[in-house]
Design brief:
heterodimer; A: mainly alpha; flat; B: about 290 residues; alpha/beta; 6-stranded mixed sheet; about 20% strand; globular
Chain lengths: ~290, ~290
């Protein structure tokens, strides 16, 4: 059971997105997320959605896997949608925009509420899909490497970027090991009659003590051993350390950058020209189909 | 009298229903009698550890039944709980399970979980400590201040303190030096002689198994490949070797001597007995 928790969700592949420079991926993902919040109309949001769809198609990650990343946020999604529908009052167009009203106007649904609900939902889904696409196509090690490189300017503030990145890599590496360890210790204590399943919250918390103390002890032991092994291989920290896998920006990275820039420009233009008119036109088009 | 442990058609799959499904045990039928000392051998990944995790219900068989003293351990929550106390399981490197402030408290963890009263717990801690040779002074120490071998013995005492009717060891001597190994094996046989407890030992050391076991079970590829006395099992040298196992070194020496035409038996499994035979042989020659 405990083994089922997967951390990092790399989906192996050789697609364009997999081969892209992780630094570029990280920056572009970040930029895209920012632009999602810049979107003001359905038109500009559609641009983002289009880009997301293209990215998913390029990544070669099956839709089933993508949906798996949306599943955990379903509840949040429904919750935000409901809040927006019932609590956002107002209209985006002229004329009668109050759609439904009952209980003497205590509960009202306005068109703006429905728009916002759909808008936010699309936005959140796109956000989750884009960011999980990053983790689907990049291994955790590559990601920390990229992060280390991108944050390296912080060195001038005496922040040890390399050390932090190394800590992160090691932490990720040891998660499966620790899970195995927990399982082992749990079995050993269960064999001595430890009861982990029943009892109130206090008893359960107490029952964890025999698991966590040995876990801490062995984690420290492991840390010492690892430090020793690293020292034996002449690890002295980031200073003067070279890499086996050099990250190099290639033509494809620049192409992706320009495509994203074009899409970003599109969003800004649509935001500037379209404002509320498109909002309602696109909105109405959208709704005629939905409702 | 019912069997101490009985497995009926036990099959176990890891990650059942996923692409990574692995059948670790295939239709195992096995009985362990009261008071027996059984050795289980098998190469790494053969399913030994999975097998013994069924003895006290840590793993639930995918199909099949596990009976302790004739009762199905999955009959109710209570029988499952009782199975934990009836069958004491001592895992590989048990010292990593120590957690209490003092050794005495750690040994008391099992009995405490059995909801025994204070006096009984105290008695059991003292008895278990004497079995493994831990002094009163050591009992008051923090388990983390003990030496490797002492830690191991403290952890074993923690299982013994539950006074299980069956005691199962997974590689009890792993990582110990030869002296520590010898001492531990002696400790286990002494314990068994004193209490009459049923003992199951999983080991990679053919020597240890040959020396102390009444019966040897060979696990290979999730199935029981052999099940018999030390003589029966270790006489099938070739088969054992094809399973990535071996016979004790002393046995190989004697079968070679036998093949070379010396007047020695082939079935010698312990160094002590081997020494005796050689000595007799030498003295016999002298007297001629």
């Amino acid at each position: 059971m405990i083994r089922d928790i997967t951390f990092g969700q790399y989906y192996p592949g050789k697609s364009l997105l997999h081969r892209m420079d992780p630094r570029m991926k990280l920056v572009l993902t970040f930029a895209l997320i920012v632009f999602m919040f810049v979107c003001k109309s359905f038109a500009s949001l559609a641009v983002i959605v289009l880009l997301t769809v293209i990215a998913v198609a390029l990544s070669g990650v099956p839709l089933k896997v993508i949906f798996k990343s949306i599943k955990p946020i379903l509840i949040i999604l429904i919750f935000t949608a409901l809040l927006n529908i019932f609590y956002t009052h107002g209209t985006v167009q002229n004329g009668d925009a109050l759609w439904i009203s009952f209980l003497n106007g205590k509960i009202e649904i306005w068109d703006k509420g429905v728009y916002t609900a759909v808008f936010t939902m699309v936005r959140i889904v796109a956000l989750v899909v884009i960011s999980s696409l990053l983790t689907y196509t990049t291994t955790p090690t590559m990601l920390t490497d990229a992060l280390e490189r991108l944050l390296s300017p912080l060195k001038i503030f005496h922040i040890k970027v390399h050390t932090l990145a190394m800590m992160m890599t090691l932490a990720l590496r040891f998660i499966p090991t620790l899970i195995e360890e927990i399982e082992r210790i749990m079995n050993a204590q269960k064999a001595r009659g430890a009861d982990l399943e029943t009892g109130g919250i206090v008893e359960r918390a107490k029952a964890l003590v025999p698991i966590f103390i040995p876990l801490m002890v062995s984690s420290f032991r492991r840390a010492y051993e690892l430090a020793l092994a690293m020292t034996c291989r002449c690890y002295t920290g980031g200073e003067g350390r070279t890499r086996m896998k050099q990250m190099k920006m290639k033509g494809r990275d620049l192409v992706c950058l320009f495509v994203c820039l074009a899409f970003a420009a599109g969003i800004i233009v649509l935001n500037y020209f379209a404002k509320h008119e498109t909002f309602s036109i696109f909105g109405m088009l959208f709704f005629k189909q939905v409702i | 009298m019912s069997h101490a442990i009985e497995l009926q058609n036990v099959t176990y799959c890891y990650s059942e229903g996923t692409p990574s499904q692995v059948t670790a045990l295939k239709d195992i039928n096995l009985t362990i009698e009261q008071g027996e000392l059984v050795g289980i051998i098998g190469h790494t990944g053969s399913g030994k550890s999975t097998l013994i995790s069924h003895f006290n219900g840590l793993l639930k068989p995918t199909s099949g039944k596990v009976l302790i003293d004739g009762t199905d351990i999955r009959e109710s929550k209570e029988t499952l709980r009782q199975s934990r106390f009836k069958v004491g399981l001592c895992f590989q490197y048990p010292e990593y399970q120590l957690f209490e402030e003092t050794v005495a408290k750690d040994i008391a963890f099992g009995p405490k979980n059995m909801k025994l009263d204070e006096d009984e717990i105290k008695r059991r801690v003292a008895v278990a400590a004497s079995y493994v040779g831990l002094s009163d002074e050591m009992l008051e120490k923090s388990p983390f201040d003990l030496s490797g071998g002492e830690k191991r013995r403290a952890a074993i005492a923690g299982v013994m303190a539950m006074e299980p009717s069956v005691l199962v060891f997974d590689e009890p001597a792993a990582g110990l030096d030869p002296a520590g190994r010898k001492e531990l094996i002696k400790l286990i046989t002494d314990y068994r002689n004193k209490t009459g407890c049923t003992v199951v030992i999983v080991s990679h050391s053919m020597e240890d198994i040959a020396k102390i076991a009444d019966r040897v079970i060979v696990v290979n590829d999730g199935m029981i490949a052999m099940n018999g006395t030390v003589d029966e099992v270790f006489s099938r040298c070739d088969e054992l070797q094809s399973m990535g196992l071996d016979v004790p070194e002393i046995t190989r020496i004697f079968s070679r001597l036998h093949a070379l035409g010396f007047d020695v038996p082939e079935n010698v499994y312990s160094v002590d007995k081997g020494t005796e035979i050689i000595r007799a042989l030498i003295e016999g020659r002298r007297s001629v």
